[in-house]
Structures are given as structure tokens and as C-alpha cells.
Amino acid sequence: MAKTVKLMQGNEACTIGALAAGLEFYAGYPITPSTEIAELCAEELPKVGGKFIQMEDEIGSIAACIGASLTGKKAMTATSGPGFSLMQESIGYASLCEVPVVIIDVQRMGPSTGMPTSLAQGDVMQARWGTHGDHPVIALAPGNVRECFDLTIRAFDLAETYRVPVIVLSDETIGHMREKVVLPDPSEIRSVRRAAPSSPAGYKPYAAEEDGGVPLMAPFGEGYRWHVTGLFHNEAGRPTNSGEVADKLLRRLSRKIEKNADELADYAAESLEDCEIAVVSFGSSAMSGLSAVRRARKEGVKAGMLRLKTIWPFPEKAVAELAKRATRVIVPEMNLGQIALEVERVVAGACPVQRLGKVNGELFRPEEVYAAIMSAARGDDAAGAGRAAGEAR
Amino acid sequence: MRVEFRLSGSGGQGLLLAGIVLAEAAILEGKNAVQTQSYGPEARGGSSKAEVVVSDEDIDYPKATDPDYLLALTSESYKTYGKLMGAGLVILDSSVTLDPEIKARTVSLPILKTAAEDIGKKVVANIVALGVLGGISGAATAQSLEAAVKNRVPKGTEELNLKALRAGLDLAKTAMPQVDWTMKRSKNER
Fold it and tell me: Is 60 exceeded by the pLDDT of residue A381?
């Protein structure tokens, strides 16, 4: 079959991607700017034998998705900041109980109800640490409409592979933007399904073969007996208060992601080979960043762009590599410096890191990032370059 | 060549749909197009803005930075966005009084009136405006605009909307003598 060429919206592409990945269950509560995902799931899921439920709130939504996933279904919910906050407790539950689930967070201005229709990227740290306790999590950030499709599919694959909640960290601009996309034929999509045991005899739902291993997951309703609890549990899934068991479990959960960090790291690079002024960004901010980098190149400034598609685990190697060559790293983001904290940690003083935060709900104009690049190229200190970019601090 | 459009008015006028159809028409001709929007929390009323960028090349930044065309259907949107116009053209509904403070080149056209009186439906003003934008800018042919309208308007309203589109294209023709053709030049030549 032919490829599809379409004018498509980011939220729509997330939904089409989810369906291509084999989405079977959606539970959600509509919220701007994510609502189109729920609308389209309501329309499309029944056609493929799936289920759509509008729940009473976001707490119920994520809980329903976890339940559906335990029965072997591929489940997803979508929300924005306020709803994402409400989901945090159950995201921890899914992490500890190792239940695959995909959560799309189309970020808007917060905190609290904030500015519902305005752009922000303020949920970066919430995606990592929103639920209490150490826990494994993966977060991906699409940078255009096609990536909404691709990264939603990848989110399902990673959730199924590692038995973790995976967050697609979209934003108002990416979610609502429509652009020309060329999508592959659905038959070309190979999606992953969790590894299942072959027989109920002696099945231990939390027994992994190695440190950082992923246990086999049996679907409920097919003759397997297992216990799911948010208490720390042994390999059979029964609650425990043993520090030794808890320590071993939490380290394994953490290692699941840590030891695969290189494989999980995903990013797009432009003009990084000889780059002196590096821009590190993600999502909608990266579109402004890329436009600025290209303009600076035309002016003879050796600027380059590292756009992160994987946010968590943080792509440490790519950023560390960049810092070896760069004389300055500029981090434009629609928050007051969340990814910048990670960049600073990884760069570890190898070169100055300049935060370029914006929180007025309006996407960076390319000139704002361009001004920071040119100021850095002139050798201004980071504070001076921030002022050149019009940043009020 | 990158061409930027900003469509502004009040929520409920359907400017978002007009922007979507314009972008789709450009894509049907093999061009690249990106459409973005901004709007208030209200379902109707409040200010509403849709932007479309059309280009033969890769579009890295999706928003209008220096619009080639501003459509303004309300006085409020004219005052807000007219001031930001550089060398681009303002296409204003003739119900809006000209503001001497706004120096941008402007043509006034009876878009709302054409919808209400000639077509007989106020709600198709967005598609009349689409015809005007498409006709004046040449960003998409009448044929592509028609195909895109058919793809995107609610079922059963195709004929009504095609009539509105043609009325808009006719308005554009009558406006051409008013339009300074330097608009056709690329930004690089400015």
C-alpha cells in the first residue's frame, strides 16, 4: 500500500501512532491541549475492537489503564499538567508493579490550572520525579508531527519491553500544530508485545533472570495466579517488609533502565561536528533553536543543535561529548531551567551552560535564541548573552 | 520561498478552519505547509488567531515571524496585529474602521457582508476570507482550494462552502488593482 501524505495535527499523529502500535484500551478525562487525542480514540478505537472510556477524572483514568494492561491489553491515556499531577500516585504504582502503560502529557502553562491554552514545557522534572520514591521511568519528547507518530509507537514498544510507564512529553505547540506528514503503511510497523510465560506452573511474576532483567508478564484471565500490590513484594508478588527484598527489587527496577540507557538515548543532531556554540533543546523550543542555529551558520558562526528525543533517561553521553568541543551550551526551554539542570550536571563545568528560560506561554521567536548564540559567539558571559536574548530574570 | 499568513478575528469565526484548509490546499500542490493557532479559553468570543506558513523548502520554525498577509476580521484583531506588520499586506474586513496609526499596506474588502448578504450565511465568512487570501497570495490554486474545502468542511455543507470560496476568489480579483505587487517578492529581496 502507498504511503499516506496528509496535513495532520500532532495530537492526531500521537493517536494514529498509538493505533499503529496496537492500542486496545484508552481511558481518559479530556483536558486542553490534549483533548483531540481522546476525541480521536473515541472515534477510532471501537472500529478496531478496542475500548474507550471517559473516566470521572485522571486518577480513575490511569488506574483503568493499569487494569487493562494487566489483562494483556495495550493501554494509553492522555492529559495535560493538572491531570498529569493527579496521575502521579498511580504512575508510581505502575513502576513498582511493572505494568506497561503509555501516558501522553501535552504540556501547558502551569503550575495549577495556569493558562490552559498556552504553551509550556514545565513538566520535565515532574515526568522524572512526580511520583514519590526512586522509580524507573522513560520520557520521550516529539519535536514535530511525524515524531508524534514515531515516538508514540516507540513509547508502546519501550513500555512493553521494560514493563514501565512511558511518558510522551508533548506540548501545546507540537500537539496543536498541523503539518505535512508522510506516514508509513501500517503493515510496515512492527510493534513489540511484552514477553509472556509459556505455562502457569511455577509462574513467578516478579522473578527476573538477571539484575536489571524484566520478568515475564502473564495476562490476567488466562489461568495464571498472581498478586499485584503497591507494597514491596517478593518474586511471587506477595507483600514483604524485608529490607533485603525491597533493596534488591528497587535496584533491579532502576537497573532495567540504567543499563539500557545507551539504547534508549535518542536525539537529532545538526551541525555538531565542528560546533562551538551548542544549542541543546527539545520539543517546540527546538524548532526555534534550529531556525536560530541555521541563521547563525549563514553568518559564519559555528553553531550546532542537539535536539533530545529521549528526555528520561537523560542522554548523558551525547551531551558530555558535545561539551568536549563546545565553548558554550545554550539551553532554550519553555520553563525556568529544567533540562538545563541536567545539562549542567553532565557538562560538569567543561564549558559554561546558559539557561534560556521562557514562561509567558509564547514559543521562542528564533531571534531570541539567535541573539543568545551571537552574544555567546562574541564571548559575552552567560548573563550578558541572556540579556541579549531579552531574558528578564 | 516562505510565505506567512496570520488569520485573526474572534473565536467562533472559523479562522482556524480557514487556516487548515489553506495549509491543506498548499500541500495538495506538493508544497510544505504548517498551521498553528492561539486562542483563549473561551469556546466563542475572545481573540483567535491561526497562522499558516507555506514554503517550497523545509519549514523549521512553524509560526509567522513577519507575516506576508494579515487577515483581520475584527477591530480588535486589526489593532493588535496590524501594528506588528512590516512589509506585508493587511486584508481587512470593510466593517472595520482604518486606524491611521497602522502604517502597513492595507486593502479593505467586504468579507463579512459578502457572506451574510451574497451567500446568505454569516458562518461562511471564514471560507470567503480563505478565497480572498488564496486569490491574493497565489499560495494555492482555486482547484486545490476547492479540493481542500471539500475535504475539511462538515458533510452536507460542501456546496455552500464552495460558493463562499468562489465569492472570496472573486473579491480577490476585484482587489488586485489595490494590491501592490511588490508583495509577491520574496523576503530576501526586500
Answer: yes
Confidence of residue A391 (pLDDT cuts 50, 70, 90): low
Q: Is B89 a member of any domain?
A: yes
Q: Is pLDDT at A1 greater than 90 in this prediction? A: no
Whole-angstrom Cα Rg for chain A: 21
CATH superfamily of A4-188: Thiamin diphosphate (ThDP)-binding fold, Pyr/PP domains (3.40.50.970)
Residue B34: list chain A partners with CB under 8 A.
Answer: 177-180
What is the tens place of the pLDDT at every residue in B43-79?
Answer: 667 788 999 999 999 999 999 999 999 999 999 999 9
What's the number of domains chain B is made of?
Answer: 1
Q: Which of B23, B38, B62 sits opposite A7 (nearest CB)?
A: B23
Query: Which residues of chain A does B11 touch, with a Cβ-Cβ cutoff of 8 Å?
Result: none
A283: left (phi over 0), alpha (psi -120 to 50) or beta: left
CA dist A143 and A169 (Å) reads 10
Contacts of B56 in chain A (CB under 8 A): none
> What pLDDT, in 10s, does the model give residues A333-372?
999 999 999 999 999 999 999 999 999 999 999 999 999 9
> Same CATH fold, A268-388 and A4-188?
yes
In Å, how far is B107's CA from the nearest CA of chain A? 28
Pairing verdict, β A353-357 and B2-10: unpaired
Answer yes or no: is B8 within a domain: yes
**Residues of chain B contacting A5 with CB distance shorter than 8 Å:** 27
Which structural domain, as residue segments, surrounds residue B14?
Answer: 2-110+139-154
Beta-strand ranges (E) seen in A135-266 are 138-140, 165-171, 178-183
Find the chain A residues whose C-beta atoms sit closer than 8 A to any C-beta of B: 5-7, 32, 116-118, 173, 176-180, 287-288, 290-291, 294, 362-363, 365-367
Contact in structure between A66 and A75 (CB atoms under 8 Å): yes
CB-count exposure of residue B57 (10 Å: 0-12, 13-18, 19+): exposed
Is it true that domain A268-388 has CATH number 3.40.50.920? yes
Write the residue in A116, A178, A366 that is nearest to B34 by C-beta: A178
Tens-place pLDDT, residues A101-135: 999 999 999 999 999 999 999 999 999 999 999 99
pLDDT-derived band at A392, boundaries 50, 70, 90: very low
Contact B27 A180 (CB under 8 A): yes
Please report, for the domain that includes residue B35, its CATH number. Answer: 3.40.920.10
Tell me how close the Cα of A134 comes to any Cα of chain B, in angstroms: 37
